[in-house]
Batch of 4 targets.
Target 1
Amino acid sequence: MTEAPHAAPARVAVVGSGPAGFYTAEALLKAEPRCDVDLLERLPTPFGLVRYGVAPDHAKLKSVTAVFERIAQLPGFRFFGNVEVGREVMIEQLRGAYDAVVLATGASAERRLDIPGIGLPGCHTATEFVGWYNGHPDHADRTFDLSGRHAVVVGQGNVAIDVARILARPVDELRRTDIADHALAALAESRVADIRIVGRRGPVQAKFTTRELRELGELAGVTARAETDELALGAASLAELEDKTNEVPRRNLEILQGFANRQDTAPRTLGVRFLLTPVRVEGRHRAERLVLKRNRLVGPPFEQRAVPTDDEITLPCDLLVTSIGYRSVPIPGVPFDARTATLPHRNGRVLGDDGVPVPGLYCAGWVKRGPTGVIGTNRACANETVESMLADRDGWPRVSRTDLAAAFGAPVAWADWLRLDHTEKARGGETNRPRVKLTTIEDMLAAAAAS
Amino acid sequence: MPHVVTENCRLCRFTECVAVCPVECFHADAERLYIDPAVCIDCGACIPACPVRAIADSIDLSPEEASWEAVNRERSAALPLITKKEPPLPGADERRAALGY
């Protein structure tokens, strides 16, 4: 044995196989010299929010998995599905065996709307609803009562739009997607016909992307609506619109103005409402109405806050879905910033309580920067982390480099996932769908192990 | 309806878009970048990343800009991929200021 040129590649464990995990793996595997990567995933299936977050009717966005499949073919890559840090393996074990550990575990917890009546049947979070229609094993057993006419989605980001669109879209269009079978059956019986998205601030501050907002106006059998008085802008919002880089709200406002004053001629209506804060859910045995306060915006441009007035309105509401923010959950043995619900870090280096980087410990994706951005944002985010790693690599702690694979319990290897994937696609092929998802861990493991 | 790189890229070539592209759909010559519409998945990450807002969803193009769709399609097919951020062209910051960004 001689030195560096012939030394074995450094070994890195990346925890979480969503976009951030895969892009981190790619940058490490393509580094010179290369780092070997073991990608750990708590579910039997890879791809994180691409599989379980991106809406089933956005197939083009989901096709990014082809990129991840190519990354999985790079030399030095191994996948270990069905391995949860804190369950099969502890973070201390990983840090003792791998030269470096990257946490790319996302933001799996959701803020709950804390108002009277939120415990009534019919009130749900978007995580539950999205996980349900996407066949996430944590949410596949849930049931949603879609027998009422009125649904309200609270939130003004793309997740809120996804939820509203899935409720509004004609079910026959969803039959061509990989939406979970149980959701397809429930949506086919849905009597939801009046859907509203409500947000606290105004149309200029909403976080929708233009493409998603525009799509609401193009749904067959759906009239998209907006209220003219809620699109009226104060001086500070007008100043925000004048900022040259703020083109998304400018386009969004044009689209919303096109929604205003539309007649409800279609079987379903989808209203986009602004300047409203939910204050309570009312109903005798289940949600029947949502009471909201009208807000006004206060503060300088780009720092406007919504302040409730005394003016209350009541919306009929049989189904309430809230999408008001996501949080990362603490990982045992890893520093955590409870204020931002992310890991404290500098350029992807996880910082200890003393503000000094923890040797060999890194982060990428939502657990690093919070739940913002789109899929591609994670590529730049992961590359920043890997740049830090490669600069640090000579100083990484000496570790055992023990192969922990045997300690991982019954992991799903990449070849096993490909079997599972094949099974789902074959089931889809029978009914002209891209795939029919398996939605229980048990079924997934059985398909992964099949010969 | 793919995303396209329009006029503002010329003489800037900031390439921030390349760093956030999830699918490696950018191609480049010495002057500017182009998007391969067959590879782009319309995620939109590149739009806010561009310092001079050169990239647009093709549906948002004005009639005068509509020809960029064909330019992107044809030039991307003829040019090599660019997968890593590169330094911008000399004078890019001046052009950015002149464009009002």
Target 2
Amino acid sequence: MIFNSVSFAGFFLVVFFLYYSPLKGNTKAQNWLLLLSSYFFYGFADWKMVPLLLVATTIIYFLGKALSKSNSDKNSSILTYLGVLTGVGLLVYFKYFNFFIDSFSSLFNAIGLHSNIGSFNIIMPLGISFFSFKLISYVVEIHRGKIEYCKDFVSFSTYIAFFPTILSGPIDKPNTFIPQLQQRRTFDFALAVDGCKQMLWGLFQKVVIADNLAAVINDVWGDLPGQSSSTLFLTAILFSIQLYTDFSGYSHMAIGVGKILGIQITKNFNYPFFSRSIDEFWRNWHISLTSWLTEYIFMPLNIKFRNLGKLGIILAIIVNMVVVGVWHGPNWTFALFGLYNGLLFIPLIISDSFFEKKKLKPNKYGLPTLKDLSKMIGTFLLITLGLILFRADDIGQAMGYISDIFSNSLFTIPEFEEKFKALRTVVFIVFFFAIEWKGRLGIYAIDEIVKKWNNPIRWSFYSLLILAIGMFMASDESPFIYFQF
Amino acid sequence: MKKFILRLFLFVNLAGFFYITSLVVWTLSAPSMFNPNVYYNIGGGGHMFSRLSEVKNQEDLDVLFLGASSAYRGFDTRIFSDFGLRTFNLGSSSQTPIQTKVLLKRYLEKLNPKAVIFAVNPAIFNMDGVESSCDIIANDKNDLNSLKMALRINNIKTYNTLIYGFTRDFMGLNTSFNEPVTKGPDKYVSGGFVETERGFYQPTQIEEKEISINPNQLKSFTKIVQMLESKNIELILVYAPIVKDEYRMYNNIGYFDSLMMSYSKYYNFNEIVSLNDTLHYYDARHLNQNGVSLFNAKLIEIIYEK
Amino acid sequence: MERSKIFIELTELFIDNLDEEGLVLKDTTTAMEIDGWDSLTHIILVVAIEKHFKIRFTSREIHSWKNVGEMINSIEKKVE
């Protein structure tokens, strides 16, 4: 079920009423409801994989229990390795196994050896990239002594399978999520209203901007030969915006649903396109993923390489970014995407600006200074270049796309099949970024903006958003991009 | 929580009223390129307005024709009239089973046909029906069936168009509308057929297609078959002929044939007549008037004379 | 080495490496309370501490610290 569908609305309405009416204040029963509805939600999307989810959850649950009861360092380490192996093993098998087979096959063929290895028909369970990370962090956090093992199987399984986030994140840490399941949850009016607002904002981004951009961009990518450079250039920029509004829109909806249920889900985006450098960008984009990787890949590597000084940090960053790339999928384009972004860190690390965190100070008109604006644009363009790799089917296609941008048709007017759709969407994009800029101190843009308004004006604004959604949402259903991960 | 529900209820009502008002005002004033999610095309292609005005005066037919453009451009009611049959052609642009069901619910009782000839093809079972739903909303008076149709199609375009449609009906904005009989090369013929002056098909590149059945459409189609069965109305399914190149591009036509045969008497005229692609069609899927004459003659011969 | 001495030397290291003048540390101080102290500068600190006290921590020790007090405990154990 995608969030913007009638079936989800019906599903959530039922869960909401049960959660707060008969089950009000009964923590245990509420958790059971969350667990059962999460499994129902997951089963609706992918019923064949429900046993897998349950089995993986159970294994990690018992590993966690054994880990906390273990009294020797050696046993602790073994159990932790088993847990990490389970999570990583799941990912490698379902996501990357075919890729490895194909790559080795190509390698053998390239050096003249013929291989008969065919790839298996492995179907990737939905959400595996997200819940396997949750399973791994649970075990590691117990090992590090940061959390106690979760005695209650229902709470633990709910953490892993929590329906707003199971398919596409955000990836919550057990440290912040599980304790919430052990607290009494009665209906919180302010939080529920906040959740609804956040959902509305996420919905707007997703269906008015992301989905409409998808149609325009897919048209171009579906017919690359003969596109003018200006079209390719603009399409690349629009893709960056599509990816952002799609994923951040989804995240807002997920977080909003959580809030309505009285649960705080971790933030996933913090206005990444206002970043003035690559490192600032990666601190503000897909935060739950990058902080997971920082915690379990970057930091350990950094510690290991700490005597290599800046070279150590560079190595750690590059490995980390390649993992970020490869996490997205079994394709060399993602690996190259990661490597490219990792290399962009090098000048920052060498010049020490990597270690500074300068707060963004607007000029007297409330707008970014010229210097900051040029840094934002520069960062945005660098990111956009990398995202071409992200979008392409293979490296050849990406390289072709990039080289085609740098030709003399760059200064012509871009040609789009659906001109008016593109134009309308650009208008909304300008409006959207104006709101994001004005509201950038808030957890989500409109939260900060409507704070100072009175009720009638706030309600008028929400009504306008709803009107914009109804009048301009893409009318052919497009799935969320991050569902394929 | 009560406070939340009440405030939400109040908000939904206020926002709803604002939405409907704004939608109507915007649709009345803004050009269509700035209004992508409303498609209210009264008097649009296919002459549905004239057809639905005329159908209200018909009753007790021998044959009722249903289907998409292959129906309203393919069954010439004058030819059947010459043969002595009282017919009406209720085909419409891109009509899918979901819309056909709505039309039957509205008009079947009064029309009371002895038989229904339904033009079927893979395309109508594949489409989502949005375009045709908007066509019917704009060119007929809307009722509960329109709402049920919108819910089944579940597309924002249909919902918005229906809101606008209900408003126009309520405010009586369509009472003075008149549709011209001739629109470009098309001429509306009393009885529901649209005759075209268009000439000859120019061959173009046609892509290979796979037949894919939309379960929503199949559901509505099944209900149509049951509806007609319950009223003892004979149902004849007809796959009107299309250009050979187009027909050959379907790589699993056997599947479609057996599916249709499982519902009712079925004739695939692509296997029965042999028409000339250039002389008898004006585009890949539609017969010109010469082609229509030949097709209808063969149809009458097979159904009524054998 | 006495704990209080470690405390003073550690505070100096913090001030030098995090560029925070007038910093006052307590046993309970955590990274969240100090502006320039994040996962990156943390490693710089660790390197500086190891260099200064001529000791070496294991990865597990580094990950286990929840606050300044626990850091000092680890330093104490390793320094003669």
Target 3
Amino acid sequence: MGLFRKADPMRSPTSGRVNRSKTVSFTFDGKRYEGFEGDTLASALLANGVHLVGRSFKYHRPRGIMAAGAEEANALVRVGAGAYAEPNLRATQVEIYDGLVAESQNRFPSLKVDVGAVNSLLSRFFPAGFYYKTFMWPASFWMSYEHVIRHAAGLGKVADDPQDPDRYEHTHAHCEVLVAGGGATGLMAAYQAALSGARVILADEQNEFGGWLLGESDVTIDGQDGTAFIADLVSKLEAMDNVTLLPRTSVFGYMDHNFLTLCEKVTDHLPSRPAHLPRQRIWKVRATEVILATGAHERPLVFSGNDLPGVMLSGAARLYANRYGALPGRRVVISTNNDDAYRTALALHKHGIFIRAIADIRPAPKGPLMKQVQEAGIEVLAGHAVTAAAGKLRVGTVEVCPVSEDGAEVTGEARHMDCDLVLMSGGLSPAVHLHSQARGKLKWDDKQLCFSPSSVHEREQSVGAANGVFDLAKGLKEASKVALKAVSRLSLSADEVAQPDVVAPKQSYQPVATWAIANGLPAGQGDKAFVDFQNDVTGSDIKLAVREGYHSVEHVKRYTTTGMATDQGKTSNINALGILANSLQNEIPNVGTTTFRMPYSPTNIGAIAGRDIKGLFDVIRTTRMDSWHKEAGATYEHVGQWMRAWYYPQNGETMEEAVNREVVAARQTAGLLDASTLGKIDIRGKDAAEFLNRIYTNAWSKLPVGRCRYGLMLKDDGMVMDDGVTTRLGENHFHMTTTTGGAAGVLDWLEEWLQTEWPELDVHLTSVTEQWSVATLSGPLAKQILMEAGCTADLSDEAFPFMSMKDAHIAGLPARLFRISFTGELSYEINVPARYGLALWKALMKAGEPHGITPYGTEAMHVLRAEKGFIIVGQETDGTVTPLDLGMDWIVSKKKDDFIGKRALERKSMANSERKQLVGLLTTDPKQVIPEGAHAVLDPHQPMPMAMLGQVTSSYYSPNLKKSIAMALLKNGHALKGTKVYFPMLDGQDPIEAVITDTVFYDPKGERLNG
Amino acid sequence: MLLISCPHCGPRDEAEFSCGGEAHIARPLAENSITDAQFADYLFYRHNPKGVFLERWRHAAGCRRWFNMVRDTVSHEIIEIYAMGQMPKTKIGKDAYATNWRRASEAEKAAVQTKKKGAK
């Protein structure tokens, strides 16, 4: 025992729920401490007499532990080391384990000596709206001071290694009743609901169910200690198959239709994290009914120096002493405006702590608690308040003054009292965050001085303290009533649980309105009195904002940043509202509240990302020939989710050299392209041809079986959306191809029209993109290679003309052979069932090897098609380009009654000569390649801003033509053929000169299509 | 996140669906002699009410079927789900249909007439 006393000077020898047989060793700022299993970092530090745990956000003021839960605003620490480090964790929520490493934040060089604290001396220069005002200064000033300010402000530092080594998971769950909060009322609600057979999920952010009741020493239920009641309820719930208990799980988000998000800390409390478990798990729960038993937060009092280490919320001190046996001080002054602080006084008194005095702002406090306190010999100063606390790194003395009932005036002489702990009790605020996220309304309770839920939007109900029902017996009764009502809406029922016999101190929950306590000095003098501790917002800041003209609560919030820190104003909102209302000489309900946003408490981004990171972030699609491309040393480009071979560099070739070689080979011998990624849609039904008539701009009814046709698809605004070749496989059977990137979108588009506009058509669509592997063999030797590869079809022009399709076998593989061309050469698109893709590719390469067959990638494909002036949808088009703009009038049927986009093309504005039209460009210097995206002007010497004609859409060096070629969308371009245009360049380079031409640069008569 | 009852698959998370915007927009054909401005009512203008809205949805990550929905854009209450080609059955849905400005647009009148003609 002697040893423990030494290690834990402030630990009660017996009380508390920590496991005294299991000592836990941890470090804080490099110093080793001991605590017990069951301690939080906060309780363990307090038990070691450590109050100073951090520096504040703006002024770098020393800060301690203020609360005992999620509402903690001061004690933010960095936990873990290296890649595992996580900043801004609330010490009140961190469970200690052997070897835990924690550090204070926002201090330099050390917590006790912090140079940033000079901010505190300069605080006149850091008023409300500091950043806004600073931005008004000359920009040069801001630029030079920004890094200093950024360094000084802010909270903790992220892990040194940006790669989070931990694993996080997501899980989905459904239940009839979700109960948020596992205190006494939450447990009761869950138990009552579960008795009906409903599936119940009960989540609580702490390691142990029971909430505040785990820290009350003055409550008995059915003749037993309150904790025995908790243990009994938990064991009953554990035994029920329809109940899921989730400790260490915070319900942080409440979305439409009762969709809630929970974050379960699975291994955060373990000294080593088992590999089979995720560190944290996000639960996505869809609940039919939700019961919110989220409790309440105690409010601080706003007085000078209320942020010193050793100034704490009264309920928190009681909880530390009773639940953890951690004694937060030896000599205590309590300042209160309500009864609850008396329970704390009695509890601490029982632990042998000296209560120097209770300063009660009420002029005549009365009731049984008051009597008990006096019987215990504790001095009560009615009509008094702590008006100022002082001390260097911890509170050492307070001023206690007689004050007016609202605390706004000091009415008599100050008394100075030595102390090492100051407790403040400003009344309770229900934790209405989730209710508010669920768009539930709040009402101002002018007796209990708090906002509590009034009406609901979702199927949810708040119970107990979260509903403003602070009395335990009443809360338990309400919990069971609300749970019964919830299950009855689900057509379930259960017997009402017999109400337990609760014996607790009789207390009033009606504080007096005290929003800011005067310090007896002229306004602005004396030490700061904080409202929002985490964002360093003082009562004076709020008053200043009002004087500067900010009257709306939303504006004051943003201007002062009150309530905008990671604690979301859990302890500060009501005090801020009270001060604002007073300054505006208005009432709190008229001033209104701001909206609570997700998350209820800070949630790890890693947890939110879950497994959707790195390789699992998005699908990567590869073709069946991919292994060959890899072996051949292909470089890749992403096309949507597809990985496509870009070019195949050989012997250290540059990209330019490799692409030029591939482009030349495809026109001189033969090239082979993996075209498997092209979108492919199988279209069947007796109205298939009619459907294509409506989808494409050209006519399809008379296309013979076995023939192919190029089609252009428009949106109904007449703009090009996709293109491709479609083949008639049978009378009522077509094979459509789409662009690689457009495949999924086109299928959706076709389905939309079929289902929503033309349901009368008998057409069925199936995506077959991944059912076929496609190799495109192109070039003058294509036919010969195909035959030598063992093609069984007659490939003569008569038997197999351009734009037709045949079934055949190639190298013994069943194939669909399409004679179509995207290069302008004799070309075959060979489709085989997907699994034969690699075999086909190898067979063609083998047969082609003696002839110099050359595999080519997507870059060469782009050059080859550009030489022929073929467009690429999405490169030559951008959603504002019609077929007429592209000079493709020939593909737009004049005869058809209807096709998508027909009416829109007839709009007068479509004939506007200012529309950009697709043209070709040849540079005066044939070696000069115009950058894609470059803008054309007629006169490069005109003053800026220049009148721009349009932009280059595709631009390449053509090794076959031995000159630079480009396509561009230029205003009235078709009429400007032969005109010179210029492309001004950056960096003082001379403008590039080019002449507008036709778009077909190579083989304009199409003579090469037949090899 | 909404809970949407797909008429084919049952209740599913909103994440499985995609919203296709306003429902019941009749499509005029080129043969309808309406002006470009009137055609623009069909092509570009969409109703965007604060309140009851008739809209199209698709069970994109499920059965891929389209259907109609009557939804309150303020409360997110789903009042009714009904098949493509059908009209709303609830009074709220019927009222929202009837009071939509589109019912009086020339584009719609022309499109509906063509449809009737086609049906004969």
Target 4
Amino acid sequence: MTTAMTTGHTEARAAVVTPGQPHPVELSWGPSRHARRLVTLALAGLAIAVLTRRAEFAAPAAPALLLLAAWRQDRPRSILVSATLTARRMIEGEYAAVRVTVSGYGDLAVELRIDPARAITPGPAGAAGQGGRQDDGPDGDGRPDLPFLANHWGRRQVGVLQITLQDRWGISEGRAAVPLPRIDCYPLPAHQRSRVVLSRLPSRLGEHAARVPGDGSEFAGVRGFIPGDRQRRINWPATTRRGSLQLNTFAAERVQNVVVLADGTADVGSPGATTSDLVHRGAAATVRAYLAARDRVGFIAYRSQASWITPGTGQRQFHRIMDAMLAEPGNSGDRSGISRLPRAALPPGALIIVFSPLLDGRLVETLRDLRGRGFTLLIVDVLNADPGGGQDRFAELARRIWRMEQDAIRFSLRELGIPIVHWDGEQSLDEPLAPYTRRVMVSHR
Amino acid sequence: MAAGPLAAACVAWSASPLAGGGSGTRPALIVGISCAAAAVARLAAGDRVPEADVFEKLMGRTRRLLLEALQAGPWAGGLVIAALALEALHHSRPWHTGLLAVALIAFLFAVYLAESGARPATLRPQLPVLAAGLGLLVLCCGAALLPAAGTGAASGWLRVFAAVAAVVAGALALPV
């Protein structure tokens, strides 16, 4: 059980503790709640005894005053604290822990507790020392872990580590508050295993079978032997049937450039499943799925201004993209908007997968512009909410007009050859993408 | 576990007999019962108050405000004052007051143990001091039971100051 920290005295605050380095933290000493209650009993008893001239009311004050006389003067003014996080990067819904080392507190009892910041929940009591006491002797260096849960993605503070030292009689307590380091909580990627593959792929070696013959491993057909061909590729059954040497041919294996565009301009819907949440969870899933296929994946964050990550491969690229998702708008990128992104951010022939609720008119125009420039786009529509605004006739009429406008926007984009699929955020992304993942997606110029 | 019965016992003991109290017994009793209920509820609720949420509903908000009020109030201290006031509203009965004092001390220690999650064995170092305190408590009650030396107001004051002086001297002389 934890002790609530509601004493009136001011708390000593220190700078963020450097991970791994013990840091002196000033303590603020004051009476504990138990001491204040004993003072109340003593003062009330003595006051009533004097006011009523009844000596028996001095009796309740006797044990209380004797206990308060045990108030210690030799208390440490500061202690050494180091607090490190077991993980600085985590995915929403995951547990991490704060590893705390406290020393220099003598024979006092130490109680540690996390005062959580927004969207952080302290871990289950007793699981790893949450609210636990560190009583491992003089100048102990126990390292209790205080678990916490990140409920929502984002770059956020964990909270404040509350340290309470108490003497062995519970009369006086020293308190200190240590701000904890920041964490990067990535959005929980949705489930996606399949991938949309374009019919035209750039001439870089990769893992997707292209339509052109090459040195891949996927069988493409049989053709006549030409001097200079490798003999080990001769198809002997076909040679026997046709009476001339026949050779197996294989499809070339190419890499695909994919650019994931996450529209963070709108944030509507129920808490925890807003359009912004769905956009980022879907984008994370797509990035992970394509990087797993060793494709080159780029990322464009479309908010009040656009920022981008040029296509790349590997786990490091995944972390770069996740960090870009968490970055505040304006940390990087171009202020002039998405239409003037450099060629490196939007390589020719790239597949652009857009996660958006399509509520931003500028983005819709930008998508039309990109389609006009010959890019192949696929839009994952994440709008699952209707506008509120009452139940009367006019509100219903307004909602109908709004829905018609939304339908018109989607219709106009489909007319331009941009496929739009709807994703509710709960099902696997494979389901809405299925019509485009079963066969190659023909890229029109 | 023990804090609830002890709180109820303190209020009931200080209020009995209900008819024997002076004016103001009923309000003091109401305050005492309220503080006892709030103190026990606070211990049952623990220290965790849910975070304020923009989207929280009326029930959630009410629950959060109730928990915040439970956390903020000095309910155990209020119970102590109400119980002593109830006892003072009755006629002088030193042995009765002495037992109430013991019950109040026990209640405060039960609250402390419940809040801190410590075991009762942690109180072992305090036992000598508690024993000395209880000795002084008995001394005060005994002094109150002795017949007054005179009939004037001064004899009452003298006994009170003697008891208070004994308690303060005991506290100052404690070798801690």
